[in-house]
Amino acid sequence: MTITDISLGNGEEAKQGQILTVHYTGTLEDGTKFDSSLERNAPFRFILGAGQVIKGWEMGFSGMKIGGKRKLVIPSDFAYGSQSIGNIPANSTLFFDIELLAVEDQETF
């Protein structure tokens, strides 16, 4: 798993149990885009550490600050493994451009 900071952000740091609001674009190794919240203009929300997203996302967003942007390279072991999901083939390495937009405590969710 590779995590590369593009910009660090200067807001609150994401912690386990918080609700994160994020934008992302996901591609396969050959550059094929399989999903993008930016194209839908619909940020994605999930609880960090609750098992709602792939392990690579749990690792990639942990410790990130609001306003931060990262590139993630997620091996299949931390993604969907030997399962084929939608247009993501089995055993795929996934590439994500991610941005942390907001962090909230669960009481406000």
Automatic annotation (TrEMBL):
<dbReference type="GO" id="GO:0003755">
    <property type="term" value="F:peptidyl-prolyl cis-trans isomerase activity"/>
</dbReference>
<feature type="domain" description="PPIase FKBP-type">
    <location>
        <begin position="17"/>
        <end position="104"/>
    </location>
</feature>
<protein>
    <recommendedName>
        <fullName>Peptidyl-prolyl cis-trans isomerase</fullName>
        <ecNumber>5.2.1.8</ecNumber>
    </recommendedName>
</protein>
<dbReference type="InterPro" id="IPR046357">
    <property type="entry name" value="PPIase_dom_sf"/>
</dbReference>
<comment type="similarity">
    <text>Belongs to the FKBP-type PPIase family.</text>
</comment>
<keyword id="KW-0413">Isomerase</keyword>
<dbReference type="Pfam" id="PF00254">
    <property type="entry name" value="FKBP_C"/>
</dbReference>
<dbReference type="InterPro" id="IPR001179">
    <property type="entry name" value="PPIase_FKBP_dom"/>
</dbReference>
<keyword id="KW-0697">Rotamase</keyword>
